[in-house]
TrEMBL record, chain B:
UniProt organism field: Cytobacillus stercorigallinarum
Lineage: Bacteria, Bacillati, Bacillota, Bacilli, Bacillales
SUPFAM superfamilies: P-loop containing nucleoside triphosphate hydrolases
ABC transporter domain mapped to chain residues: 4-235
Listed transmembrane segments: none
Protein name: ABC transporter ATP-binding protein
SMART domains with a match to the protein in the record: AAA
GO molecular function, one term: ATP binding
Alphabetical UniProt keywords: ATP-binding, Nucleotide-binding, Transport
InterPro entries the UniProt entry points to: AAA+_ATPase, ABC_transporter-like_ATP-bd, ABC_transporter-like_CS, ABC_transporter_ATP-bind, P-loop_NTPase
Any Pfam family hit: ABC_tran
Amino acid sequence: MDHKSHTKALHNAYIRSLKKEKYWVRFYQLVIFLIFFAGWEIASKNQWIDPLIFSSPSKVWELFLIKVQDGTLFYDLGFTLSETILGFILGTLLGTILAAILWWSPFLSKILDPYLVILNSMPKVALGPILIVALGPSFTSIVAMGTIISVIITTIVVYTSFREVDPNYIKVLQTFGGTRFQIFKEAILPSSFPVIISTLKVNVGLSWVGVIVGEFLVASKGLGYMIIYGFQVFNFTLVMLSLLVIAVLATIMYQAVEFLEKKLIKNN
Amino acid sequence: MTFLNVQDIHHTYFTKSNAVTALSNISLQVEEGEFISFLGPSGCGKTTLLSIIAGLFQPTEGRVELEGKQVATLKSEIGYMLQQDYLFPWKTIEENILLGLKINHHLDEEKKAYAKDLLLQMGLSDVESLYPKQLSGGMRQRVALVRTLATEPKLLMLDEPFSALDYQTKLHLENLVSDTLKSFGKTAILVTHDIGEAIAMSDRIYLFSPSPGKVHKVFEVPEELRECSPFDTRNHPLNAEIFQTIWKEMESLGSQESHKSTP
Ligand SMILES: Nc1ncnc2c1ncn2[C@@H]1O[C@H](COP(=O)(O)OP(=O)(O)OP(=O)(O)O)[C@@H](O)[C@H]1O
Ligand SMILES: [Mg+2]
């Protein structure tokens, strides 16, 4: 009995120490956040940094309020966000489908192998001008940029994981007379979910790169356009605002993927 | 007509660097309801032979027929439990045991109830919603067996199902499997390294010799032992005698091997 209560006390102490650590982690995170913005503000106010180039948090905040009130922020934000999400989903989906096709036909995968390597090592954003000429300077070509930047790496990573599935799971399904499609659905795909999720995480970042570059090149609206426009008219408050909004949105998307991960991978 | 007819099987594995003949000139017949064991040292082609009987791949030569039909055409009538449990870690126990039925499109309420009942018979209750890694090795092995039995195969093949278990669990499961199979009148082939297990479980024992794998000798288990449960067989006075005979044969296999390898 005594022993039991002793264990319980130790356990409580352990939980308390965990909580305490978490509290301190949060505290220092907040400190860094405050120091960064306060430092930025002070440095800008005292002209230690050029306020024209680096702006200041208070100016960014003012601009933010103005652009929220007149609705233009949400207009640009909605445009860029839908491009990014679409590019992200298409890139991951197409990459996974391509990986499935390669898995389906090992012969085809052997043929395509060197081409995948070439496409992967190529800087995809360099394709931007060609995409714009081919698809027109529009929403479509920007989404294409967001897609193309992640699709090949997704294909390669997911295909590798498909191939590394323990062949004995396939054997189990074959003993039940499973078809190649059933093998894919019951063994290959689910055992690759963790890998697919981790490519999702990488693709969040990649699609933002593709879309912003795409907007640099063509758009007349969107957050990437805000950056380029601010740069051209030397309004760096606009550039900073756009960067901060992108940071917040990209983080939210990343969190959403982590949430999906918890839903999808139940057995860990 | 023989139930299972394995005729003149040869099998060679081809790889880039070499060709390994795993099986040579294997012929054997199994009648319905019989329990057969394949005994032999590691690498003598037991798993290869089971895979061929299961129709997973074609042998380089020879044919396998179940009730006169080529096995490649009737997969779902043969249950094959692999050397390890290979439960799907992302599926619950319930999903795992129903997998075979789902694959061959026979999943209905009746079959579902049957599978769950098997689980209970194996002494596993309240595990349906758990995941495989929450079970012990012996429990997982039983779940794998239920998964194999749930499709009601005519022929059951077990590849060293008990070799990874502790001795007590092993004895317990031997009895359980033997009872279950007897009550269903199932035909079964068991692969094992363990002479005692082969005697305890089966009606007939095929002793294989390696490189290339072939049937070295066939032993009939005496009638009296067949009637006993595996556990009782192990303690039966007749057991020691037949154990000695098989042991000597296996020893002679070993010494032949070492003769071959000494130049
Ligand atoms: N896929 C394969 N490719 C090439 N050679 C193989 C393959 N599978 C098995 N072999 C070879 O065939 C022989 C028989 O292997 P098998 O797995 O059938 O033996 P086994 O009797 O089941 O052994 P164990 O008792 O260790 O399970 C071995 O020499 C092995 O190296
Ligand atoms: Mg084997």
